[in-house]
């Protein structure tokens, strides 16, 4: 039974997510239907509030929970920072864009899980990304989260010094997700390295930002080097997500769909309805994983 580790100070103060553990009935309490008991709680995080609300509604339906999926409530409505939904044994949380934003949410979420006495948590980041040599709509299950220099590490600056943390993710969860993707229709998936950048434009080799300090040739050379380093997609949260989950003993996976192939351009010109369908692919895959683990499907 792997406990969630908290910092040595055991700091209790949290001023970002005012969600009250009692309101959630404890993430790990038996769900109202009593269907799922105290098994593994599952946590899914993603950048956009709307997407994490629709994921919560989707999971509510998939787990056939009582009540109306449309009635789910944001238990973080007191703050403007994040949205959080508890659906049976699943917590769905938004985190905004970029390492700083998800990092703050993860501190608060991990403290919440600790106080709810959760054990054996499995946490998924379900997001979107830019593909590197992959067709749009491909789901990338992250092997290693790497930084802009393709290193499997996250640099945390603390008191003016750099702490380097490993970004290893749970290999078994990744392999299991890949296996399930082959059982599901229309979820083309690969396992590969995910590069996490601190910027969407220049930091990802885009030529179409307000600033651009490089040529098309230099952009393509960088993307080729990334590809040779095993990078298959680019997003903006995976390294700190992997690092913090690892330090806190949380089994973690990153499952992001690609919205475009960056070798073919920078703009996300895919029609909105197609983008929505793409964004559902990681949700379907993770929902399938959860249902398998809850014994709802054999
Ligand atoms: O789709 P989400 O989860 O927001 O993730 C990706 O989308 C945002 C950029 O468009 C960044 O947060 C990147 O990581
Ligand atoms: O190209 C992309 C698409 C989504 N998210 C990113 O960070 N980059």
TrEMBL record:
<comment type="pathway">
    <text>Pyrimidine metabolism; UMP biosynthesis via salvage pathway; uracil from uridine (phosphorylase route): step 1/1.</text>
</comment>
<keyword id="KW-0808">Transferase</keyword>
<feature type="domain" description="Nucleoside phosphorylase">
    <location>
        <begin position="42"/>
        <end position="289"/>
    </location>
</feature>
<keyword id="KW-0328">Glycosyltransferase</keyword>
<dbReference type="InterPro" id="IPR035994">
    <property type="entry name" value="Nucleoside_phosphorylase_sf"/>
</dbReference>
<dbReference type="InterPro" id="IPR018016">
    <property type="entry name" value="Nucleoside_phosphorylase_CS"/>
</dbReference>
<comment type="function">
    <text>Catalyzes the reversible phosphorylytic cleavage of uridine to uracil and ribose-1-phosphate which can then be utilized as carbon and energy sources or in the rescue of pyrimidine bases for nucleotide synthesis. Shows broad substrate specificity and can also accept deoxyuridine and other analogous compounds.</text>
</comment>
<protein>
    <recommendedName>
        <fullName>Uridine phosphorylase</fullName>
        <ecNumber>2.4.2.3</ecNumber>
    </recommendedName>
</protein>
<dbReference type="InterPro" id="IPR000845">
    <property type="entry name" value="Nucleoside_phosphorylase_d"/>
</dbReference>
<comment type="similarity">
    <text>Belongs to the PNP/UDP phosphorylase family.</text>
</comment>
<dbReference type="InterPro" id="IPR010059">
    <property type="entry name" value="Uridine_phosphorylase_euk"/>
</dbReference>
<dbReference type="Pfam" id="PF01048">
    <property type="entry name" value="PNP_UDP_1"/>
</dbReference>
């Amino acid at each position: 039974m792997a406990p969630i580790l908290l910092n040595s100070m055991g700091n209790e103060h949290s001023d970002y997510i005012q969600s009250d553990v009692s309101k959630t009935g404890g993430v790990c309490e038996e769900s109202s239907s009593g269907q799922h008991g105290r098994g593994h709680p599952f946590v899914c995080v993603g950048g956009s509030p709307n997407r994490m609300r629709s994921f919560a509604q989707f999971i509510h339906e998939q787990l056939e929970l009582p009540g109306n999926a449309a009635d789910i409530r944001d238990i973080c409505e007191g703050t403007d920072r994040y949205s959080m939904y508890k659906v049976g044994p699943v917590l769905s949380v938004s985190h905004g864009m970029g390492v700083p934003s998800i990092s703050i949410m993860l501190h608060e979420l991990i403290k919440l899980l600790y106080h709810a006495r959760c054990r054996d948590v499995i946490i998924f980041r379900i997001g979107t990304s830019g593909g590197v040599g992959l067709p749009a709509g491909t789901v990338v299950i992250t092997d290693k989260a790497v930084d802009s220099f393709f290193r499997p590490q996250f640099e945390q600056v603390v008191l003016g010094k750099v702490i380097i943390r490993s970004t290893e993710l749970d290999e078994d969860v990744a392999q299991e997700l890949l296996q399930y993707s082959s059982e599901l229709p229309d979820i083309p998936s690969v396992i590969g390295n995910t590069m996490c950048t601190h910027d969407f434009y220049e930091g990802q080799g885009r030529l179409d930002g307000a600033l651009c300090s490089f040529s098309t040739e230099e952009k393509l050379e960088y993307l080729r080097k990334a590809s040779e380093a095993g990078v298959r997609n680019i997003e903006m949260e995976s390294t700190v997500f992997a690092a913090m989950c690892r330090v806190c003993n949380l089994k973690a996976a990153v499952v992001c769909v690609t919205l475009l192939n960056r070798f073919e351009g920078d703009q996300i010109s895919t029609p909105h309805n197609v983008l929505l369908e793409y964004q559902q692919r990681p949700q379907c895959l993770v929902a399938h994983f959860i249902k398998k683990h809850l014994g709802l499907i054999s």
